[in-house]
Each structure stands twice: as C-alpha cells, then as structure tokens.
Write a structure and sequence with these properties.
The protein has 206 residues and is α+β, with helices and mostly antiparallel strands. The protein has one domain. Helices cover 33% and strands 16% of the residues. It contains 7 helices and 10 strands. It has a 5-stranded mixed β-sheet with strand order 2-3-4-8-7, covered by helices on one side. A 3-stranded antiparallel β-sheet has the order 1-6-5. Strands 9-10 form a two-stranded antiparallel ribbon.
C-alpha cells in the first residue's frame, strides 16, 4: 500500500504535475543507477541504497551541454556538480531528517510517547535516478512512502526546465524530510497529508 496522501503533494510542490517530467523525459541528471550494496545511516542505523548516487558517475561534458541548451541556471548546475557533497552525506541527510521529524512530533503532547518509540531501523530508503511514475495514482512524483513495506523512495536531484512548473528544483535532502514525516505520521496514527498550519500537532487522528 502507498500512502493515499501522495496526491495532495501536488499542492505543496513535491509532486511533479502530470506532463512536467514527461515534457522533458525522465532525464537522469546524475546518470543511470548502479547496483551497489545497502548502507546504514551512521547515527540511527537506517538502511538505505544510493544506487550509486553517493558517488555519481556522470559524463559531465554531455550533461553540461544539455543543461546549457536548456538554460539551466548556474546555481542549479553547481548543486548537481557537488551532489551529494561526499560519499557519506546521504546517510547524514537521512539521520538529520529522522531527528528533525521526531523532534517535531515530540513537541505534540499526546504524540510524544508514540514518536519516541518509532523504530528507525524499520525504514528502508532508496535514492531514485529521476522523477518516477507512481503506478497506483498514475502520476509522476519526486518522492513516496509505502507504509506496507516501510519504504521511502526519493529522487536524487531534478530540475524542471519546461512546462508550467519550469524552474522547480527538487533535492533528496528536502524530500527525505517530507517522506520521513509521512512515515512518522503513519506510525503514530495521524493523517500525514494534507498538512495544516501547526502540523504535526494539528494532525487529525486516522
């Protein structure tokens, strides 16, 4: 089962509107995925697979020519050139996201005890090469959480250069925070999305 809240992601921009990704194809800014062993985040031991994007193997001459042709801004190009910042950075992003989300939930009175007991080691995270089709809703997404398997998928980094959402930059670092929020909400029994002001403390019980 996928969290049925994935559709409202359109409202806050983690969803890639139908046609936005398709208009430029599922362009892999950091190259194709590679088969690599799973890793574990250094602090919380969360299992994840980078598909090789912790050390991207990119033909930058080709990619840079393509991005120049599409007028991709310099700051976006620089983000991609330095992604992720080092071989261990993705694991650190995962730990930081888990810690921040847990802290947010623990400020919520009745949710605090349940949030404290959420098991980080039940999660499995995959870094995806690009935007991907969510088959249940038949929409292109930047990230998704699947409660039945405790799996999160987020793209690595993606820039939309055409269509109604031209100029959007999506980064795994931010997407991880959002999807771990969905994980926590599901685990403690509140609605993950939509997120009203004051969420998660204002989240309705499921």
């Amino acid at each position: 089962m996928i969290t049925k809240s994935i559709f409202p992601l359109a409202l806050i921009g983690l969803f890639l509107f139908a046609g936005s990704a398709n208009a430029q194809g599922y362009f892999e800014f950091l190259g194709s995925p590679r088969s690599v062993p799973d890793k574990y985040s250094p602090k919380y031991g969360i299992r994840y697979n980078t598909q090789g994007y912790d050390e991207p193997d990119v033909n930058w001459n080709k990619k840079l020519k393509k991005m120049a042709k599409k007028d991709v801004p310099e700051y976006v190009v620089n983000e991609m050139l330095r992604y992720p910042g080092g071989p261990g950075e993705i694991g650190k992003w995962i730990d930081a996201a888990f810690e921040q989300v847990q802290s947010d939930f623990m400020k919520c009175g009745s949710l605090a005890g349940r949030a404290r007991s959420v098991n980080p080691k039940s999660l499995y995270i995959t870094i995806m090469p690009t935007a991907f089709l969510e088959p249940y809703y038949k929409v292109d997404v930047a990230g998704a959480y699947y409660p039945s398997t405790h799996q999160i998928k987020v793209l690595n980094i993606y820039y939309i250069w055409s269509g109604s959402n031209a100029g959007w930059l999506r980064h795994a670092r931010d997407l991880l925070n959002w999807e771990i929020g969905n994980f926590f909400a599901t685990e403690v029994g509140v609605v993950p999305e939509p997120r009203p002001a004051g969420w998660p403390c204002t989240a309705k019980a499921k």
